[in-house]
């Protein structure tokens, strides 16, 4: 059951649910509890977010001729 809880919280973070909401749904009194426990996953999400502008610009360049 505990593993399902971790899976659920991780999936919520992966889906982009704000940490405040995830913390509330998990029953954590503080968002920092959630971010501390799941910081490894949040770091991976941060790396993905950092690459988003690059991906957007690449797509923009590829479709530039379509306009």
Outline:
The protein has 67 residues and is mostly helical. The protein has helices at 2-14, 19-26, 31-37, 39-63.
Strand content: under 5%
* DSSP helical segment count: 4
Q: How would the global form be characterised?
A: elongated
Question: Order of SSEs, N→C?
Answer: HHHH
Helix content: over 70%
Low-confidence stretches: none
Average pLDDT? 80
Query: Which structural class fits the helix and strand makeup?
Result: mainly alpha
Tally of discrete structural domains: 1
State the end-to-end distance.
52 Å
The counted number of beta strands is 0
Biggest beta sheet attributes: none
Q: Radius of gyration from the CA trace?
A: 16 Å
Task: Please give a structural write-up.
The protein has one domain. The protein is built from 4 helices and no strands. It is elongated, with a radius of gyration of 16 Å. The protein is mainly alpha-helical and 67 residues long. The N and C termini lie far apart (52 Å). Helix 2 packs across helix 3. The protein is 79% helix and 0% strand.
